[in-house]
């Protein structure tokens, strides 16, 4: 939790500390119907947010007891207090903020915070949850999921989810994140899928049940698709659409036949393309540029993976090659 706390208020370009501004944003963008502070004069508001395609990360603290009420919304809200105490009420369910909570879409949501509470609330779009769950199960999801507010499938699943959220916040806070939309899109996809496996709902049994086997053709189609689309986001939906089988079936068959996951295969293909770009550089080629173009936003992880595969750091590969002149460099003398 300490690492998450250190990142908590660094996930926005423009953090907000003005109470009136926050109140307006809370109502206009998040749909809140109530926001009460015990003592507005002594409030020490800190708020920041990041809005991705299907996830919105909200981080806030108030320095005084506070109450926030939301009407039914089309999002599932995962809340994690990194400090302090409070109470969460979702529909008829009530839970303390001592542990994480997951509020269902379509239910009224109320927060009662003590003065010292610092928390992160991640809103997952309901339509994204249903879309990815349909891809995993191979069948349409017609109704919103109903989650148990404070119960999760396992401690291991929950730790994985919190780890992905920590990574997501770190990624957004990175100066490279705007330059690496591919990596961010895939991380968002992974977080939504992990939430589906972590939260307790009526379809848990189907998700965790051993999926049916498939032929090797689906695995080959997945490999062909990844090889052809290595520079685009590889998500659960794109893979199931390309292979014609459910995500659970594909991942089980892929791992059984190849010994690694589709994600690991995508990383391998992207490393090969990075190697090629560094061996045949243009005059303006940089290791950072190649890493970002190939979907690696964590430069340290990229360098280590590259070293493991090719036996040298990417900077060494680039330094050994003479830059080739591109058409633009010939025409414009660059």
Q: What are the main properties of this structure?
A:
single chain; 334 residues; alpha+beta; Jelly Rolls; Arc Repressor Mutant, subunit A; 5-stranded antiparallel beta sheet; 10 strands; 46% helix; 17% strand; disordered C terminus
**3D shape:** globular
Number of H/I helices? 14
| Fraction in beta strands | 15-25%
Indicate the CATH class of one domain: Mainly Beta
- List segments where confidence is low: pLDDT < 50 over at least 5 consecutive residues: 326-334
CATH superfamily descriptor of one domain: Jelly Rolls
N-to-C SSE series? HHEEEEEEEEEEHHHHHHHHHHHH
Calculate the mean pLDDT score and round it.
Answer: 89
Radius of gyration equals 23 Å
Look up the CATH topology of one domain: Jelly Rolls
Tell how many strands the DSSP assignment holds.
10
Strand order across the largest sheet: 1-4-9-6-7
Helical content band: 40-55%
Indicate the structural class: alpha+beta
Largest sheet composition: 5 strands, antiparallel
Distance between the termini: 49 Å
């Amino acid at each position: 939790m300490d690492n998450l706390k250190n990142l908590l208020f660094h996930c926005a370009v423009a953090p907000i500390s003005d109470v009136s501004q926050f109140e307006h944003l809370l109502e206009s963008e998040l749909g809140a119907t109530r926001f009460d502070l015990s003592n507005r004069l002594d409030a020490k508001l800190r708020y920041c947010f990041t809005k991705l395609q299907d996830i919105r990360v909200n981080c806030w603290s108030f320095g005084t007891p506070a109450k926030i009420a939301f009407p039914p919304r089309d999002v599932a809200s995962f809340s994690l207090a990194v400090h302090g105490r409070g109470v969460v009420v979702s529909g008829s369910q009530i839970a303390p903020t001592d542990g994480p909570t997951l509020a269902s879409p379509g239910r009224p949501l109320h927060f009662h915070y003590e003065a010292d509470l610092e928390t992160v609330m991640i809103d997952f779009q309901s339509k994204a949850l249903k879309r990815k769950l349909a891809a995993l199960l191979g069948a349409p999801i017609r109704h919103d999921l109903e989650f148990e507010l404070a119960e999760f499938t396992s401690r291991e699943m929950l730790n994985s989810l919190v780890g992905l959220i920590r990574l997501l916040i770190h990624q957004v806070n990175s100066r490279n994140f705007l330059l690496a939309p591919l990596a961010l899109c895939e991380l968002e996809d992974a977080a939504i899928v992990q939430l589906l496996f972590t939260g307790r709902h009526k379809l848990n049994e189907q998700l965790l049940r051993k999926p049916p086997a498939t032929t090797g053709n689906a695995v080959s189609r997945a490999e062909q698709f990844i090889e052809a689309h290595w520079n685009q986001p590889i998500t659960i939906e794109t893979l199931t659409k390309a292979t014609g089988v459910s995500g659970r079936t594909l991942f089980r068959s892929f791992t059984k036949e190849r010994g690694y996951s589709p994600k690991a295969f995508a990383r391998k293909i992207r490393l090969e393309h990075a190697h090629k770009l560094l061996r045949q550089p243009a005059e303006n080629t940089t290791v950072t540029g190649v890493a970002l173009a190939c979907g690696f936003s964590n430069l340290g992880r990229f360098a280590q993976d590259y070293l493991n595969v090719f036996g040298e750091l990417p900077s060494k590969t680039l330094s050994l090659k003479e830059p080739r002149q591109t058409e633009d460099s010939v025409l414009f003398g660059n």
